[in-house]
Amino acid sequence: MIPDTTPMNYSDYQHIRFERREPGILWMTLNRPEVLNAADRRLHTELVEVWRTIDRDPSVHVAVVTGAGRAFSAGGDLKLVEDAYRNSEEIMRLLDEARDLVYNLLHCGKPIVSAINGPAVGAGLVVALLADISIAAESARLADGHVRMGVAAGDHAAIIWPLLVGMAKAKYYLLTSEFVDGREAERIGLVSLCVPDDQLEAKALEVARKLANGPRHAIRFTKRALNQWMLQAGPIFDHSLALEMLGFFHEDMRAGVEGLRQRRAAEFPSSKLTAAG
Predict the structure, then answer these.
(1) How far, in Å, CA of 197 to CA of 199, rounded?
(2) Fold held by 16-264
(3) What single string gives the DSSP state of each residue in 176-208?
(4) What is the C-alpha to C-alpha distance for residues 155 and 153, in angstroms, rounded to an integer?
(5) Residue 8: pLDDT above 80?
(6) Residue 274: pLDDT band by 50, 70, 90 thresholds?
């Protein structure tokens, strides 16, 4: 039987642009540049589903993901977060999507390269760091902003940061929500490579070309074996995600969102001291 090599239909995706730059290489661009590619409800769902689409596409040997304009992705749209505040149905939906985003990335059989061209936080950082090879521009700025928003660092953080940078660095960056630039991210092992901004696209294509033309089964199975390190941390990840969702019921989250919206330090109700006795 001749295998089906008909490319998948990607027309259902509204906020991801797809290009077939070379045989076997699918170039994906998160495409909401007017809001720094922040993930609204639609894009968040597309980021969950696209890895399944790619996995089923026999014409794709490797996928490269980057962001349109000057950002990779500014994370979840604040309205998406606000709509979930104390809304149990929406919180459950977000929990399921956040869980599926991580596991769909890890279970995708095709190698994924991220070209981190600017700020990457939230859901965007999940994609950037869970890619098999992550390449950051020198000006890229990465941060896990959950604590800044008043919720626990769920999503990808517990499953990957300690493995990449060690527990001391993971705790520092996850508890403070500080940004790390491309050079420092490479130095501490958070990303695979860092290159000058004007070389990012060429380097990502060079790596993708090497993967696309390499032994497909050997690459696929090497990825599968290495990802077991992250999958064995699944219970830790699931626990962190549940704790994050608990935060959506607390007024700290509203304060965190308000601080982000006004670009100022948040005033968290839980941090206010009460008089003794």
Answers:
(1) 5
(2) 2-enoyl-CoA Hydratase; Chain A, domain 1 (3.90.226)
(3) H---EEHHHHHHTTSSSEEE-GGGHHHHHHHHH
(4) 7
(5) no
(6) low
